[in-house]
């Protein structure tokens, strides 16, 4: 009787799941302001930090390049510290990088690169924690919405914060270390994320009727490469847009503050889409249309921003924000949906985000170079639209084929375990 009473004293599983979800949401909010705060004030940086204007394309590329190079760090750190502690450590490094790059002008570029590494380390572990806690599409949706909310807050508040600090832009950039520290505290205290939640089934737990076979290496699984291509292409588009949209709008005659506000609107308009896209993706009939359809929608929206008059940019930038954010939400959802368990989700997340962001690093750099070569924006937007069409093809392939599996247990065993909780998560057209 005493043991029963003691067992009932602890928090309920529903409360623990809620705390994990809150921590993940706070973590997600911190994984974009380091980029969008810089993008929102890009034109002011040369005078403020003594930066050569020719290095601005490199500054926009550095965080994404760091993403591509640091993909394996997250899973490696999680195996040694546990996923919750690994994410907390990454956010502490992020907070330090934000302070250093804002207060030491010579460290603007190295600090931005370090911030990108910290962001990537935390980012690749989010799908693993979602999968381990049997999170539904709403979990993934809330996390992707957190990414969009953080991006919007970073772009939209950097100028008002600078004004609040008496015109001190460095303080407005460094203050984002505070929410990073809060996120580190919450995820560290979240028990459901300490070791990644519910572990994957092991070979010894498999029923005797299940088929047990060793899966092919991740690099030989075509579904893994299709998901990686989708993630990388949508990320390339996102970072090209966030790095240069404000500069493009200024070239159209808008004031820098208005251009920064529209960059924030780009992220804000996409928040509902980033929440709903993973939820809708769990429905097979919708996923068949959504995966390729989003790429075509992004292409149309990019050309709309290029051709629309200045007076219509609020509307067109909003549409671009909706379809681009939905693409990111779907990319994160595919990592969860197209993997057979927590370990597979973590490995697929590292692969798709590592290789994907390495590809995405070409976005800001390529867009800036095309603009510099032509002196205008027409060719840049047409090339980005063509890339969005390729994104549609990657989406078509990502939802076909077997689930990604990296464990020793057979695919049948893992699928049965997960589908007991997520009946739609193993859809194969």
From TrEMBL:
Record field: transmembrane: 53-70, 82-100, 106-126, 138-157, 169-187, 223-247, 259-277, 289-308, 314-336, 348-367, 379-399
Transmembrane helix recorded as keyword: yes
Keyword set, alphabetical order: Membrane, Transmembrane, Transmembrane helix
One protein family per Pfam: MFS_1
Top-level taxon of the source organism: Bacteria
MF terms (GO), sorted A to Z: transmembrane transporter activity
Name of protein: MFS transporter
Organism: Paenarthrobacter aurescens (Arthrobacter aurescens)
